[in-house]
Request: fold
Amino acid sequence: MANTGANGAGEWIEKAERDLASALRLLDGTPPYLDTAVYHCQQAGEKALKAFLAHRGQPIRCVHDLVLLVDTCVGLDASSLDNVAYEA
Reply:
């Protein structure tokens, strides 16, 4: 998804929610597909971070490095991420 700017944030959140819902379905199966569920959890986190960046009007880079994305988000607004981490 190559979208930049605040108007793409909602789309990133929708995709993150779908990834999380997919992970839950994979966990509920018999047998549960743990490896694939974990993959979708990682994807949900990545897309949520990209939504944060889009909301802040930042360009969205095509990376899959959660540490890099978190560091970028913290550089913009650490207090907002502190609240998110506390609520999680």
About this structure: The chain has three helices and no strands. The CA atoms of residues 35 and 42 lie 11 Å apart. The mean pLDDT is 87. Helices lie at 9-28, 34-55, 66-87.
